[in-house]
Amino acid sequence: MTGDDVDGTGPTQASPPGDAPTDLASDAGPRRADAPDSLLGGVLAGRYRIDRRLGSGGMGAVYAGTHLLLDRPIAVKIIKPRFGDDPGIAQRFIQEARTASGIAHAHVVEITDFGETENGTAFFVMERLEGEDLAATVTREGPLGWQRVVHIGEQIARALAAAHKHGVVHRDIKPANCFRLTRDDDPDYIKVLDFGLAKVVGASRHGDASLTQTGALLGTPGYIAPELYRGLAADHRVDIYALGALMHKLLTGELPPMRLGLDGPSELALAAVPPGLQAILRRALADDPAARYPTAQALAGDLRRLAAGTGVSLDPGSDPPAASGPLLTVTRDARGLSFTIGAPLLGALVLGLGVFAYFSLRAVALPPTEPVGAPLAPRPLELQRPALPPPAPVPPPVAVPLALEPAAPPPASPDPPPPAPSEPSPTAIDPSAAPPGPAPKAGKPLPPGSPAAVQKAIRRRCGETFGYDVTLQWKADADGRLIPGSVKALVGKRTLLNDAETCAVRQLTRSELAWTPGETYTHKFKAG
Ligand SMILES: Nc1ncnc2c1ncn2[C@@H]1O[C@H](COP(=O)(O)OP(=O)(O)OP(=O)(O)O)[C@@H](O)[C@H]1O
After folding, report:
1. Of 8, 70, 150, 197, which has fewest CB within 10 angstroms of its CB?
2. DSSP-derived secondary structure for 111-158
């Protein structure tokens, strides 16, 4: 897994220029592969020798090392120096290790140690895996056979089910975060990596309220569930959506088109896969979380049944009740993100009110504000899109340009929204269409058609992605903030939903520029 590839398809070991997330100091430009690394050859915490750098991601770099006492290979993730000064980020990093180490599942990477060095650099130690992440696999091999995807998807679903029971939502499931290795003659044995973006239900147990107040939309474009883009309450089903997107990517080489407000499955490029798998993906990728699998366990069950040829249970009413564990509800409010446990106690209360049956069909958690478990009221999303092609037996994938309706203003709060982190996580997207975001900077709106700063950033960061002429389009909302879902990358008349778009959307959303309200921008980039 690399932060190199924003849609999870890039190489695993390198840090190319298009990789905004991976370089240690983005303002200083990407880290050169041959740059000296003072950690190499050193010994961490008196027992971990740092042998070579494997790559880097949003918050840290990963090194291959050796446990000197046990003479055993390990991998160490070390927080980036620029984040080291930020106690909040370091806290998240340690939290990542602590929570991931508690999941203990065959398909979750094992965390064996974590801590801080003498100079305050946070690190954690993992089992070192031999293989490659799924982004590398799909880049090299192209689309995978559906049987392989079902096998891979089931393992990831089981890992997620274990994490969700533990109160952890991964929030950044993508090919780059799923490592493929050979075990017991299985060449597609999967370990899920990187719970760095996961938020923990039990954060408050550690007295870490800041974990709930990032105010940023975390994830990777293309894998982010629609409710997060909308700024609605969200829960563990964001992982189910992301896993659906991951399987779609593995099956077709492309991400599913984002179609906010549309549940129609006809645009999925899945003609070559069995109807049962198509149905599974449609359900996993449902726009409305209530129409998705209620649990990762249920998704894993259908994948298992499909592999065994015993059919799938796609009737939502046939799903098992929600897991009894502390499933997570992430709620966006004026203070940022907050978390609620859908505890059995809550279920009992609901039962006492005589409506358990109603909710058990739709929800696994009951957020305090806008329940994602309940059917979403049809939202008047202003989908500005060309007329959809007429229904056809196997329609080609259609990318729908989106203009998200700015969500309703947040409820009044006595407290002002928290300040944005000094350096957002590389995969953090300022949810400009979301209600609780900070007010747009009172910058001088750039004249339409000359977004020079963004052009520079995209040129620098997405240089390798644009090996061809590409036109970028994006739209500003009524407040002059970029609408993430509006970004399109066009090559000729074809809309791309891959590296170009995801790299561009990341750069655009990070730019924090004020745009001309309501303006649609079109910008051409020449290859090279
Ligand atoms: N336990 C491990 N064993 C072997 N290689 C690993 C291990 N963990 C990570 N790697 C590799 O290290 C590199 C960097 O991983 P890292 O988690 O920093 O990337 P990332 O997924 O982009 O991070 P982030 O999600 O924080 O942006 C990747 O090539 C990944 O495959």
Report:
1. 70
2. EEEEEE-TTS-EEEEEEPP-EEEHHHHHHHH-SPPHHHHHHHHHHHHH
Kindly give the number of the ligand 1 atom that is closest to the alpha carbon of 3. 22
Burial grade of 417 (CB within 10 A; 0-12, 13-18, 19 or more): middle
Q: Which is it for strands 428-429 and 217-218: parallel, antiparallel or unpaired?
A: antiparallel
CA distance 461 to 149: 31
Q: Which residue is it, tokens 């991964």?
A: 170
CB atoms within 10 A of CB 325: 21
The answer to whether 77 is annotated as binding is: yes
| CA 417 to ligand 1 centroid distance, Å | 32
Give per-residue pLDDT as tens, 319-346.
433 333 333 333 333 333 333 333 332 3
Q: 287 catalytic, yes or no?
A: no
pLDDT for 221: 84
Q: What ipTM, to 2 d.p.? A: 0.96
Compute, in angstroms, the gap from residue 193 CA to the centroid of ligand 1.
Answer: 7
> Does the predicted TM-score (pTM) go above 0.90?
no
Q: How confident is the model at residue 434 (pLDDT cuts 50, 70, 90)?
A: very low
> pLDDT of 121-154, one tens digit each?
788 899 999 999 999 999 999 999 999 999 999 9
